[in-house]
Design goal:
Blueprint (H helix, E strand, L loop, with lengths): L1 H44 L6 H28 L2 E3 L4 E3 L14 H21 L6 H20 L10 H5 L7 H19 L6 E2 L2 E2 L7 H20 L8 H32 L4 H16 L7 H25 L8 H19 L12 H31 L6 H6 L1 H6 L13
Antiparallel strand pairs: 1-2, 3-4
Helix pairs in contact: 1-2, 1-3, 1-7, 2-3, 2-4, 3-4, 3-6, 4-12, 6-11, 6-12, 7-8, 7-9, 8-9, 8-10, 9-10, 9-11, 10-11, 11-12
C-alpha cells in the first residue's frame, strides 16, 4: 500500500512538473514574440522616417509568414523523426509533422516558431530603405521554411542523429543556430542589394542618421526583456534544478547585456571623445547575442567576459564593415548578430565550466565550437546567395532610384507613417 501511494505521489509530482515546464516555455515564447516589436522599433529608429511603414510591414510579415511556413513545413524539417540526405535535414510522416502536431507539442511549436521569426527579422534591418517588399516576402518565406529549419536540425533536436550534438557542440539558445544564421543571410543580402543612395561618396562612407533614437532605445529595452524568455525558456523545463538552471541563465544574460553596453560606451567614449548612443545600444545587443550560446555553460564571470568582448568587438566590426568593406548595414545587424553570434559561440571553448580551455578542458571544445559556428554561417550564406541571386535576376531585389529617394512608404504601401510636416527626410 505504501509503495502504491508513493508511486501515485511521484506520478502527480511528475505531472505538475511537466505542466510547470510547459507553462514556463509558453510564457518564454510570449516574451520572444514581443521581441518582434523590439526589432521593429529598433529598425525604425535607426533608419529614415520615409521608410517607417515599410519596416513595420516587413517585421509583421516576418512573424506572419514565418508562423505559417514553420507550422506547415519548417518544424517537421527541423524536428522530424526521419533523416533525409544522410542527416542533412529531417522529415516526418504527414500525419505526425507537416501541417499537424500533437497537442503535447503545441507549446514547443510556438516556442520554436518565434525563434524562427527572429532569424528572419535580422535580415530586415541590414537591407532597410532600398529593397522591394515583394522580394523580401519571398526570401523571408524561404528562410523560415528551409534555410533556418535545415541547419537547426543539425543540433537542436539534442539526439544522436544531430551531427553537431554528437560532436559536442554547445549553443544553448542560438548564438549560431539563430543569430549567426540571420547575420550571414543579412550579409549576403546587403551585398547583393547594394548600399543606399548617398551612403558612399568618392569611396568614403557618409553617415545617414536614424530619425528617432527614442524608438531605437525602446526597441533595445524590449529586446533585452524578451531575451530573458529567449535564453531562459531554452532551459525547456521548470522545477527543482531546472528552476535554478533557468534563473542562472537569466542572470548570465542580464550581466552580458549590461557589460556589453558598458564596454561599447567607454570604448566609443575613448575612441570618439563622445558617449555614442547607437553604439552603446548595439553593445547591449551584442552582449545578448554573444551570451546566448553559452548562458547555460558558463558562470557569471564567463558571462561578463563574453559580454564585454562582444560589446567592444561590435563597435570595431560595424566600422570595418561600413568603412573598409563598404557594405551598407543601417542598423548594424551583420555585426550584432553575425559577428557576435560567431564570437559568442567560439568563446564557449574558453569559458565553459565543462570542457572550456580556461577550465582545464583543452582545445577540443574550442575547435568544435569554431567549425560548428562556421558551418551555420557558410550554410546560411550559400543558401541565401542562391535564393537572392535568383530573385535578383528575375523580379529584382531593389526599388528604383525614384522610389528610394521619395521613400518606400509611398511607393510600396501608398501611405506615409508620419504627417508630412514632421518628416525629416523630404
Amino acid at each position: 500500500m505504501i509503495v502504491q501511494e508513493q508511486e501515485a505521489i511521484d506520478k502527480a509530482v511528475e505531472a505538475i512538473t511537466g505542466d510547470m515546464g510547459a507553462l514556463w516555455i509558453t510564457i518564454a515564447a510570449v516574451l520572444v514574440f514581443f521581441m518582434q516589436a523590439g526589432f521593429t522599433l529598433l529598425e525604425i529608429g535607426f533608419t529614415r522616417s520615409k521608410n517607417t511603414g515599410n519596416i513595420i510591414m516587413k517585421n509583421v510579415m516576418d512573424l506572419a509568414v514565418g508562423s505559417v511556413m514553420f507550422w506547415a513545413v519548417g518544424y517537421a524539417i527541423m524536428y522530424g523523426s526521419d533523416l533525409v540526405g544522410g542527416g542533412f535535414f529531417r522529415s516526418s510522416p504527414s500525419d505526425q509533422g507537416y501541417l499537424f502536431f500533437s497537442a503535447d507539442d503545441w507549446y514547443n511549436l510556438f516556442f520554436q516558431t518565434v525563434f524562427c521569426a527572429t532569424a528572419a527579422t535580422i535580415v530586415s534591418g541590414a537591407i532597410a530603405g532600398r529593397t522591394k517588399f515583394s522580394t523580401y516576402l519571398i526570401f523571408s518565406a524561404v528562410l523560415t521554411t528551409l534555410i533556418y529549419p535545415i541547419s537547426g536540425s543539425w543540433y537542436w533536436p539534442f539526439d544522436d542523429d544531430a551531427w553537431l550534438n554528437v560532436a559536442g557542440f554547445v549553443d544553448f539558445a542560438g548564438s549560431s543556430v539563430v543569430h549567426a544564421v540571420g547575420g550571414a543571410a543579412a550579409l549576403v543580402a546587403a551585398i547583393l542589394v547594394g548600399p543606399r543612395i548617398g551612403k558612399y561618396v568618392d569611396g568614403k562612407a557618409q553617415a545617414i542618421p536614424g530619425h528617432n533614437m527614442a524608438f531605437g532605445a525602446l526597441g533595445v529595452f524590449i529586446l533585452w526583456l524578451g531575451w530573458f524568455g529567449f535564453n531562459g525558456g531554452s532551459q525547456l523545463a521548470w522545477g527543482g534544478s531546472d528552476t535554478v538552471g533557468a534563473t542562472s541563465v537569466i542572470i548570465n544574460t542580464n550581466l552580458a547585456a549590461a557589460i556589453g553596453a558598458i564596454g561599447a560606451l567607454f570604448f566609443t567614449w575613448a575612441k570618439y571623445g563622445k558617449a555614442d548612443i547607437s553604439m552603446t545600444l548595439n553593445g547591449a545587443l551584442a552582449g545578448l547575442v554573444g551570451i546566448t550560446a553559452g548562458c547555460g555553460a558558463v558562470n557569471a564571470w564567463g558571462a561578463l567576459a563574453i559580454g564585454l568582448l562582444c560589446g567592444i568587438v561590435v563597435v570595431l566590426s560595424i566600422e570595418f564593415i561600413d568603412k573598409k568593406l563598404k557594405i551598407d548595414d543601417p542598423v548594424g545587424a551583420i555585426s550584432v548578430h553575425g559577428v557576435c553570434g560567431f564570437l559568442g559561440t567560439v568563446l564557449i571553448g574558453l569559458f565553459a565550466l565543462d570542457g572550456g580551455l580556461f577550465y582545464g578542458g583543452g582545445a577540443k571544445l574550442l575547435w568544435v565550437q569554431t567549425y560548428g559556428s562556421l558551418s551555420y554561417i557558410l550554410w546560411a550564406a550559400a543558401a541565401s546567395f542562391i535564393v537572392l541571386f535568383i530573385l535578383k535576376k528575375t523580379i529584382g531585389l531593389r526599388v528604383s532610384e525614384k522610389e528610394e529617394v521619395e521613400g518606400l512608404d509611398i511607393h510600396e504601401h501608398g501611405i506615409e507613417a508620419y504627417p508630412e510636416h514632421i518628416s525629416q527626410d523630404k
